[in-house]
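As noted in the main text, all predictions were made from sequence alone. Below is one such record, for Poly-gamma-glutamate synthesis protein (Capsule biosynthesis protein).
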Amino acid sequence: MKTRFYLLSLFFLVSVYIQAQQRITLLFAGDAMQHLAQIEDARTPSGYDYDSCFVQVKNEIQSAGLAVVNLEAPLGGFPYSGYPQFCAPDAFAQALKKAGFDLFLTANNHCLDRREKGLERTIRQLDSLEVFRAGTYCSENERKRLHPLLLRKNGIRLAFLNYTYGTNGIQVRPPYIVNYIQLENILRDVETAKKNGADVIIVCPHWGDEYRTLSNVSQKKLADTLVDAGVHLIVGAHPHVVQPIEARLDSIGRIKSVVAYSLGNFISNMKTRTTMGSIVFKVDVVKDSSDIRIENPRYALIFTQRPVHVPEQGFTVLPAARWLAKGDSIPSSLSIPLTRFVQDTRKLFSQQNKGTVTEYEF
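Prediction:
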């Protein structure tokens, strides 16, 4: 009888504890690029269609509690263009939303490629899709209202802050605003997020050196400062290649914060060995009555298949590990660059990642 009583009591306590917990899984993707070849590939007799680009990964994206992507091509309207000054069809953002992305980051070095009109049109198009956005604003009043972006999900209050190192020499003109990486302003914004009741603070900087697989001194210095200021997650973009991930621990060995320096190109037509793939980064945020915890930082390798890899097929984001396992059933034109990307990234992460950050497959 006593044993049964103790078991029932234990079951009750565990049930209460589980009910008291709030949990959310966050997913981050890298640079959503839009080169001319992608635009031409998406063209249809009636417009543009990008849905097939994300069919292999949409279930994974949609399974997250909140999914974030860096939109690195303004929606400036026709005529559309690729590098060096990007302008994507509206259908590109529509397909990203259909794929499951909830939050679009817009502060990057290409956000002014169509000047202020392109910046404003991008904002209005994203608003019409009813997605969240961060990084650029049409006025100071709009920025005050939306920055820091505070979202409440599963009882957890998340603050998102997005900044860019620059805008390719194009100066933003009032009343429009681009969040630039200025340490004093970022630290002030972090404090504002805390005062606004944020449980978790996430900073997404557009930073670093293009095509370098290791973070530079300025990235590391800024990351250290933000961690010390109480930022929980730092998820970077811009280098167009994958850079290491660091899980920073507190004095009792729990994860204090995670820094993912660069996730690489989520989708693009970049053709060098290190730019054809990327990672999606996931982390669990857990809140209970006593504290907030960052748990299980993990990543999955993805790869952009393009027409040059498989003739007659368009641009498609693939779960890299699952497709690599297909072996001889995929053509060598795809398997060779896919294998190289997977091997290169696993080697980089085995040598440079810090803390427990695991690979997963989907």
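The mean pLDDT is 95. Residues 139 and 175 are 5 Å apart (CA to CA). These features were considered when defining construct boundaries for the mutagenesis experiments described in Section 2.9.
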